[in-house]
Amino acid sequence: MRRPTRASGFASRAGATLRGALEHRRAERLLPWHVNGTLAPVERRLVEGHLERCAACRRQAAHQRRLAALVAERPRPSIAPHPAKLHALEHRIEGMPPRRRPFHLLGGLPAPRTLWVLAATQAVALVLFGIVFVLERSNARTPAVAPYETLTEPRSESSSSEPRLRLVFAPAVTEEDMRELLAMLDGRIVDGPTPLGVYTIALPPAGGEEALQSVLDRLRQRPEIVFAEPSR
Amino acid sequence: MRGESDREPRDRQEQPLDDVLLIERVADGDRTAFRELYRTYYPRLFGYVLRMIGRPEVVEEVLDDVLMVVWRKAHRFERRSRVSTWIFGIAYRQTLRALRARGRSPRFEELDSESVLAPDSPERDAHRRQRAERLERALRALSPEQRAVVELTYFEGLSYPEIARIAGCPVGTVKSRMFHARRKLRRLVAELENDETPDSR
């Protein structure tokens, strides 16, 4: 076997020093959490091993224990919430818009259970009113006119440059949800809600027919949209 | 204070299922669950916010804001984190917001140290009070972020990954803030240690 040359010996000693320095830095930074006992076992062993070799860190650890004791010895206020405060808070809550939010509007899956309950509720409501809504969930292009035209015509004039659609939201959707959705589409409400809960939404003119179609596709996949059709 | 070295890190433990069930009920709009959550977390949150802000009347307002956020955002809670981490995260952000909005905490002299240290504490030990006052002065030299790390580490006894989740920052940032905090607090600790050695009397 070849003897190690002076160069490689030096390199390995320098390497060891560098490793030592890195280990020291690492252990030193972990000291507070070694002191409060929350380190993972691997890190704890690293710190303990290093403490055996490093007097500076042992002193540091002692300082940290002192600091920890000072911080922790301060009295812990045993404040119970005053009933009046709770009442005032609940009052504030009551002043807020409807709270039920079973969906995430911008991503995230709704709880399946909640979704089916709402879908079932909606279906019941539709049957009761004797109105059939077309629920398009596929990505296929829709015909220009929906098979069942049961909604009233939009009351406002349609400007040719702005593509429009008509939306019905699921019952539990809040106003905030609607605003977020509209912001996402860059759309604005030009009519509605009608007694059946139909909104007419105008989209930015630049998009055109194709953009409208892709928007409709996206909307129909969202559980908070019960109905989405182009407007005449 | 926890010092046993063979304990598992706290965030590896299972969190109480009750808390998760409570949050989910709050997300459904259950007021009773909200009240229960409020009562459970209020004392601990009060303590944290009081230590960070120092003015009891402001603390009440901040706590109200924290609980409003809990109420409004309960549906966004994800099971993979702990409820306490999530709530403390909200408290952390609201506290920093309040400090920025109102300017940093008032000069120490203006504070009634009684109220800062606990309004109804029976603690009368003069030495302890003195130490606490000196500690308080030193802690106020830290940035709010640095102080939060010290409080969460040594008062709440949290691991650094959990603190990172609460503060919404990388673990390296937590360690760095603690490192700088330690440097600023070094003098205080040394002074107090000197005061306590018999020779200095």
The major pleated sheet of chain B works out as: none
Mean pLDDT of chain A: 74
Provide the succession of SSEs of chain A: HHHHHEHEEHE
Q: How many E strands of chain A?
A: 4
Q: State the distance separating the first and last CA atoms of chain B.
A: 28 Å
Low-confidence stretches of chain A: 103-114, 126-150, 152-156
State the helicity of chain A in percent bands: 40-55%
**Gyration radius over CA of chain B:** 18 Å
Please give the most extensive interface between any two protein chains, plus how many residues each contributes: A-B, 45 and 63 residues
Q: Give Rg of chain A in angstroms.
A: 33 Å
- Run of helices and strands of chain B: HHHHHHHHH
Mean pLDDT of chain B: 82
Overall form of chain B: globular
Count of alpha and pi helical runs of chain A = 7
Instruction: Give me the secondary-structure category of chain B.
Output: mainly alpha
Low-confidence stretches of chain B: 1-13, 107-120
Strand element count of chain B: 0
Coarse shape of chain A? elongated
**Number of discrete helical segments of chain B:** 9
Description:
The complex is a heterodimer of chains A (about 230) and B (about 200). Chain A has about 230 residues and is α+β, with helices and mostly antiparallel strands. Chain A has seven helices and four strands. The termini of chain A are far apart. Residues about 105-115, about 125-150 and about 150-155 of chain A have low confidence and may be disordered. Chain B has helices spanning about 15-25, 30-55, 55-75, 85-100, 115, 125-140, 145-155, 160-165, 170-195. In chain B, helix 3 (about 55-75) packs across helix 4 (about 85-100) and helix 4 packs across helix 8. Chain B starts with 16 loop residues before the first helix and ends in a 5-residue tail after the last helix. The relative contact order of chain B is 0.11. Classes of the chains: A alpha+beta (about 230), B mainly alpha (about 200). The interface between A and B is large, with 45 and 63 residues.
